Every structure is written in C-alpha cells, then in structure tokens.
From TrEMBL:
The keyword Transferase applies. This is SAM-dependent methyltransferase. Keywords: Methyltransferase, S-adenosyl-L-methionine, Transferase. GO terms for molecular function: methyltransferase activity. Pfam families: Methyltransf_23 (PF13489). One of its GO terms (biological process) is methylation.
Length: 234
C-alpha cells in the first residue's frame, strides 16, 4: 500500500489542504471524502459515534484511529486509550495531535487486552470479506478482558442495489453484497485497491453466535447504519 490516506492526513495537518480524497467502488461512482471530516470534533460526529464514545470504559483500544479524533476525545475524558492504524501517516498525525499511545500496526498484530475495543466509521470494513469475519472475531475475542465490550458500527448497503421498481439486482451467485472493492486516489495518485466489508446486522449477529460472542443492537442510524455491542458469553 502507498499510504495515500496517511499522506492526505499529513497534508491537512500541516496546512497543505488543496483537495480531497477521491473514493469509488465497483457499485458506486467517484465521490469526495472531505479531509476536514477526518478531523471533526465530538459535536460534529454522527449520533452513532457519539453513543459509542459515551459507552467506552476501562482500557480502550481504538482500531483504525485515523487522525485520532476518537482517541483524543476519550483522553480528554480521562480514559486510557491505545490507538492503532495500519497507516503510518495516520499514526504520525495522531501523535502530533496529542494521542499519547499510538502504534502503526494492523488489528491482527495487536496482542494486548482491553475493556473496550472501538471500531468506528464502518468498523466491519477491516474484516475485508465475509469469509474473513470468523477469523477477525476470534482475534477480537482474544483481546477482551472479562466483562469487556466491542463497539462496532456498519451499514446494510442492500439499498444500493435497488432498482427503480423497488426490486434488487443482487447476484445471488456472487460474493456477499456487502463486499466491495474500494478504490482511493489523492492528488492524482491511486492507492492499491483494497477489500472493504459492509455487514448487515443479522449477518453480524449470526457470525458472533458462531464465534461465542453476544451481539446487541445498540442504536440504528438514519441511513441503514447501526451500532452494535459485542461481548463474551456468560
């Protein structure tokens, strides 16, 4: 990976903001991801993210921390947070912004244990494909302290396949409809395409049961999005 995401965050942090990240998938046209959105404050967060932050407790792991916006809020509340991201540039920005404990590595390389694990801004995306979900859930489960929780959000993107007649053009012989090829570009440079997973709640619930995790729907958003809480079975 070229870490285009990290380069964009660094540009914005250093005052070199001239354009936004461009994203697209195999089912959607190019769209802008505004860099200021990645540096927003608590009051500008979607209600699902605000709710998740309010539920955080104990030792916290912020997965895919980006610019560190969630970690910074939690630190200000006096909570102990470790932030991780696979983007080297993102971690550099998070540290410069004041995140006290930030490390550049993937979720599967994490070995600590936590009371709260936070995966926001479509947290299921990191799972990449439906087939990989059990592996990630087992690993997340191994990182939980007793009575710990995983707070994760996602969206059911079935609506993106709806036609003008109200039907759906999903190919039932293809991969799960929430598996997307994610394309990202910035200042004329293209990132290596990556897999990104949007997981509907019922599918997440089924996967959690198989992994020995409780899965509770905490809150639903206004556009097919939701926040879920995963915990160890009693």
């Amino acid at each position: 990976m070229k870490d285009i995401f990290g380069k964009a965050l660094l540009d914005f942090y250093h005052g070199n903001y001239t354009e936004d990240i461009i994203t697209s998938t195999q089912i959607s046209d190019e769209d802008e991801l505004p860099l200021p959105y990645l540096f927003r404050s608590y009051n500008d967060l979607p209600i699902l993210e605000q709710k998740a932050l309010k539920l955080c407790q104990g030792d916290i792991l912020d997965v895919g921390c980006g610019s560190g916006l969630h970690s910074l809020y939690l630190q200000e509340k006096g909570l102990k947070v470790k932030a991780i991201d696979s983007s080297k540039g993102a971690i550099e920005v998070a540290k410069k912004r004041g995140v006290l404990n930030a490390e550049n590595h993937a979720l599967l390389d994490e070995t600590g244990t936590y009371d709260t694990i936070l995966l926001l801004m479509n947290g299921t995306g990191i799972f990449q494909t439906l087939n990989d979900v059990p592996h990630y859930l087992r690993h997340l489960k191994s990182l939980l302290n007793e009575n710990g929780q995983i707070l994760i959000d996602s969206s059911d993107i079935k609506y993106m396949y709806e036609d003008d007649d109200g039907g759906f053009w999903i190919d039932t012989n293809a991969s799960y409809y929430g598996e997307l090829d994610y394309f990202l570009s910035y200042k004329g440079e293209n990132e290596t395409p990556m897999k990104w997973l949007y997981l509907d709640f019922n599918t997440l619930l089924t996967a959690c049961k198989a992994a020995g995790l409780n899965c509770e729907l905490i809150l639903e958003g206004q556009h097919f999005d939701y926040l879920a809480k995963l915990s160890l079975n009693a």
